[in-house]
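User: Quick sanity check before I run a bigger batch. Here is a single chain. Can you write out its predicted 3D structure?
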Amino acid sequence: METIEKKRILVIEDEVHIADGIRLNLSLQGFDAKVAPDGIEGLEQWRSWKPDLIILDIMLPMIDGFSILKTIRQEDEKIPVLILSARGDTKDKVKGLRYGVDDYLSKPFDLEEFLLRVERLIKKKTWYASNKRDRKPGYKMFEGEYYDFGDNHIDFVSFKARCVAGEIVLTEQEIVLLKLFIANKGTHLTREMLLTAGWGYSRGTSTRTVDNFIVRFRKYFEKNPKKPVYFISRRSVGYIFDHDE
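Assistant: Done. Predicted structure follows.
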């Protein structure tokens, strides 16, 4: 009988009663949870234990949570990180997002909401791994932090773009699709390929999903959306992204 490996969750939290409560509830949900009481041990456990998700406090001994997050993102862009902190003001949330946090929950928190957020982030991690394995050969994702074309600048770290439409905040789906287009610059991509490789959608999903995103991109990045020069339609094929160096 095949053994299903438990998902690993690292809790970097110095308040003992909170850390023990989180570990207990995660264990009851079937996760393998481990606690690190300070920033240094948190980074050590992240590197050696290789968790699937990190629950991170901001105010920690030795190294603060934001510094930990920044260090992790320099080496791993995919591991989900959930900040759990008593500091719930907007400035801290914006700082966390800028450094690459996936979710932010303020203390005190509702246990059911916390567990739902954990489940969502674990599923996201599992999808990324599966999508990477299943992606068709010959297609890749752009791995850089920034990209420029024409008068447009995309910052993949902050999810922001300076473009014809002004400064905009991009959604996660837009980021995935843009990375796919950029990495395959000059290559015809079918709608089906964009759906399956970009999001892992099934064949039953409407191809209009891709078309709607292309409309958005043209409004963002094209000087004349009705006469696009970057995001071009190819009849009976799909789309191609291209531009001069």
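The longest helix spans residues 111-134.

User: Great, the batch can go ahead then.
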